[in-house]
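chain below, 269 aa
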Amino acid sequence: MKHELASGDRVRCAMDAHGVAQVALARADKLNALDLAMFDALVGLGERLATLPGLRCVVLSGDGAGFSAGLDIAAFGAVLAGGDALGAPTPGAVTRFQQAAVQWRKLPVPVIAAVHGVCFGGALQIAGGADIRVVSPEARLAVMEMRWGLVPDMGGFALWRGRVRDDVLRELTYTNRAFSGEEALTLGFATLLDGDPLARATALAREIASRSPDAVRAAKALFEVSADLSFDAILGAESAAQRRLIGAPNQREAIASQTEGRPARFVDR
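prediction:
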């Protein structure tokens, strides 16, 4: 049984009985090109998911022939020519365009992007916000912004940091060269390759959802802070997280389910 969370003409979302939310860019007739309505729908959904009870994992995909062709230049043409495409920043100096990508990294649960067809420009940054990217070998990806006289500005430089080698990212940014899913794996843009990325991403999400939600959320929080902490501070953060987990109901249930050879019955808080 699925719980419908969004059913508009830009983004669909439903959460299944496993606690996995399937988020789909739903503008297939335009190759899921990103217009203002798409950005608004993504940000609104992200805000809802951030506090949704029972959420264990998110799968992010695109309807139709591709994940997304990137920015809808026809929709943004007049705004871009006028030089005021960003609008007023939201709290934390993050624009709504950046929020559409970085919110996936900031969600308390893991996010898995399933990428097929094309994934250009802003779409590549949205996929970059996911914890894990499952990409079709035949997919076509590109850092597209400079073709339009722009730079990646949806969090790409922060999201790709430490994942894509600096000189490689410079070459791709300066040239807008498209690359395949297979090359994306070697470059650092993809985590896994699969001919059916949505099915693989969903199976992986359900596997993650079967783990203690407390431990999964704690691990994601540690991943998010560890890149900016000193060595000793990371040790302290690990110990603090472990102290909160040990002896808690879900940790005891993890042990009991393993010793008794049965599926775990975790409680979402």
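Residues 231-245 form the longest helix (15 residues). The two ends are 21 Å apart (CA to CA).
thats it, cya
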